[in-house]
Design goal:
Elements (H helix, E strand, L loop, with lengths): L7 H18 L9 H19 L3 H7 L2 E3 L2 E3 L4 H10 L18 H14 L1 H20 L2 H12 L3 E6 L15 E5 L2 E12 L8 E8 L12 E6 L1 E3 L5 E4 L2 E6 L10 E14 L5 H37 L18 H33 L2 H37 L1 H4 L5 H8 L9 H14 L4 H16 L5 H27 L6 H34 L5 H18 L2 H11 L13
Parallel strand pairs: 3-6
Antiparallel strand pairs: 1-2, 4-5, 5-11, 6-7, 7-11, 8-9, 10-11
Helix pairs in contact: 1-2, 1-9, 2-5, 5-6, 5-8, 5-9, 6-7, 6-8, 8-9, 8-10, 8-12, 9-10, 9-16, 9-17, 10-12, 10-13, 10-16, 13-16, 14-15, 15-16, 15-18, 16-17, 16-18
């Protein structure tokens, strides 16, 4: 059965043991860190995710959304789930206390985002993008806009969207055509935007669109883009809603997956909008929202992979087929070695992905809140980890949801079981908020070559120091540590290779950027897995009451190190040996 139960224990493990209690406590809004508090809040969130939101997932996929006039009809149960989420105060956790938020670190709210994304991937996009819109408005809008809009966004009475691309633009925002004409203390926004997630619906009282547009005298290219807040309904100075603005959804996209999510083509016809930030600095403002959303997409990659794993595991324990050497009777397929291989491949990578998302989120928190002398180092690390986390997690998610179908066999390929939905839904994660290629080019160009590898080398140094500090209390840990050391050394060779070769090999960075991202994601994953091995061994030697949890964690982490981490060598070989071939074939020969 396609049921979902958030893995609360593993979430807390990733936070307390991998991110570390010290890093959590360093946030001034969470100085009184308490494990019991985490367990209580996550168990409560797990309940609403599994019992209220998750049951809407399958019918959301089957019913889909529809547009009639200005109204989008949503699947059954969506409104009840949204109301329960808002009434429970869940949108407010990591938001500004001055506007109704609870001020917790994003690191603490990210597991709850994961829960709702795993519960219903389509429905949860509404929550994810609203959080990102809040972050951008809080960081860049003037006080008047904040006072009028933020509290309603924070409490979930309003929702938010991100309006970037246009039919002729795709990912190239330099050619967007939407215009913003000055009109007193506001602007008239005209143009069309595509792929706007939850651009129209009636789940919230109002929808706040953040729109990229050009002022009449703006310079060409991305330097001439400004950001505007465009409400669905005008908001009066006393906070009441006025007439509808001249913005509407004119069609819904028909998509491979996320059928229960309204992905809209939006039309702005002299719609009233308000400038956010300074003129012609809209892209910088939008990147506050986009970077937040990129980590969010990495988190949703974990979430949909986790749901696919849970369903595959349940099926493997129930489906009777074939025999094994030690048994004469027919057995459930979890007894077959290859099914075990697939399940461990899924589980081991999900656990590492989750840890990586939480670590990257913690670095973003620390870069915002740390003292001046530590702020820069945390920001460099957060900037480096963002494209790796988004790109690697979303790519691995494709493998995991595909394996979920494979474990089901023919029953996975038909829609009846729901396994195919996870595969279809997950496909968007490598495209959302910048494709994997965009993440990879950002990583190798801006985050690596631009600073001559200093940020990455600092992270590599941190890994090496932690390997040296491991208490080698077991042969398994010693073996894992040696494997990690070998792959760190291989990565260092690649760092030297790229920095020395890219200056006189025109296409090198573009040709190898994907392999570079995947190599680093796998390496960092191996580092987190080895840390999990050490933690699990110490817990087992101390006769922990959670011995089953730590034994499973030990085996899955060892599997990652011995079966997944060696892929670093594959990616490294591809970087060294395959780059020139990428551009060698003439276009007409393809």
């Amino acid at each position: 059965m396609d049921q979902f139960l958030p893995p609360v224990k593993d979430m807390i493990f990733a936070l307390e043991e991998i991110v570390g209690k010290g890093n959590l406590k360093s946030n001034p809004h969470f100085e009184e860190f308490d494990s019991d508090f985490l367990e209580t809040i996550y168990e409560s969130a797990s309940e609403i995710a599994s019992e209220i939101i998750a049951p809407t997932n399958k019918n959301g996929d089957e019913q889909g959304v529809s547009l009639s006039g200005n109204k989008v009809t949503v699947p059954d149960g969506y409104a009840e789930a949204y109301n329960a989420y808002v009434e429970g105060g869940w949108p407010t956790l990591s938001c500004n206390p001055n506007y109704g938020g609870q001020g917790m670190p994003t690191t603490i709210s990210m597991p709850i985002n994961e829960m709702v994304m795993g519960a219903n991937f389509s429905w949860a996009h509404l929550v994810l993008l609203t959080n990102s819109a809040i972050r951008a408005i809080d960081a860049h809008a003037n006080k008047e806009l904040k006072d009028l809009y933020l509290e309603k966004l924070v409490t979930g009475h309003y929702s938010g969207t991100m309006n970037l691309t246009e039919p002729q633009a795709g990912s190239d925002l330099s050619v967007l055509n939407t215009v913003a004409e000055p009109n007193g203390d506001s602007f008239k926004i005209s143009g069309q935007k595509i792929f706007i997630t939850w651009g129209e619906h009636e789940l919230s009282e109002n929808i706040i669109h953040l729109v990229l547009a050009r002022l009449p005298d703006a310079p060409e290219g991305v330097k001439g883009i400004s950001l505007f807040l465009v409400p669905k309904f005008h908001v009066n100075k006393d906070g009441t809603l006025g007439e509808r603005n001249d913005v509407k959804a004119i069609s819904l996209e028909h998509k491979l997956g996320i059928h229960g999510c309204a992905t809209c083509v939006m039309s702005f016809e002299d719609a009233t909008g308000y400038l956010v930030g300074n003129p012609n600095e809209g892209l910088a403002c939008m990147f506050t929202m986009m970077n937040d959303a990129r980590i969010g997409v990495a988190c949703e990659s974990v979430a949909i992979a986790e749901r696919a794993y849970q369903q595959a595991l349940s099926y493997a324990k129930e489906r009777v087929q074939g025999t094994v050497h030690s048994e004469s009777k027919r057995v459930t397929i979890i007894h077959h070695p290859d099914v075990r291989r697939m399940l461990l491949t899924m589980r081991s990578q999900i656990e590492v992905m989750r840890a990586l998302v939480y670590v990257a989120t913690a670095e973003m928190d620390l870069s915002d809140l740390s003292e001046t002398d530590k702020k820069l180092s945390h920001k460099i690390k957060a900037d480096l980890l963002t494209p790796i986390t988004k790109g690697w997690c979303s790519e691995i998610c494709q493998e995991i949801t595909s394996l979920g179908i494979q474990i089901h066999g023919g029953m996975g390929y038909v829609e009846e079981t729901g396994a195919a939905q996870h595969y279809r839904d997950s496909r968007i994660t490598t495209i959302y908020e910048g494709t994997t290629a965009i993440q990879a080019n950002d990583l190798i160009g801006r985050k690596f070559i631009k600073d001559k590898g200093q940020g990455l080398l600092a992270l590599i140094s941190e890994m090496k120091n932690s390997v040296d500090d491991f208490d080698l209390i077991d042969d398994d840990l010693e073996t894992a540590s040696q494997e990690l050391h070998n792959q760190i050394e291989r990565t260092e060779n690649i760092i030297t290779f790229i920095l020395s070769e890219e200056k006189h090999r025109e296409y090198l960075s573009g040709a190898v950027s994907f392999y570079f991202l995947m190599m680093l994601g796998t390496l960092i994953g191996g580092w987190l897995a080895v840390r999990s091995i050490e933690i699990s061994l110490k817990a087992l030697q101390s006769d922990s009451i959670d011995s089953d949890f730590y034994e499973a964690k030990l085996i899955s982490s060892k599997f990652f190190v011995l079966s997944i981490l060696p892929k670093v060598n594959f990616y490294a070989d591809s970087i060294e040996k395959g780059a020139d071939l990428v551009m060698e074939m003439k276009e007409e020969l393809f």
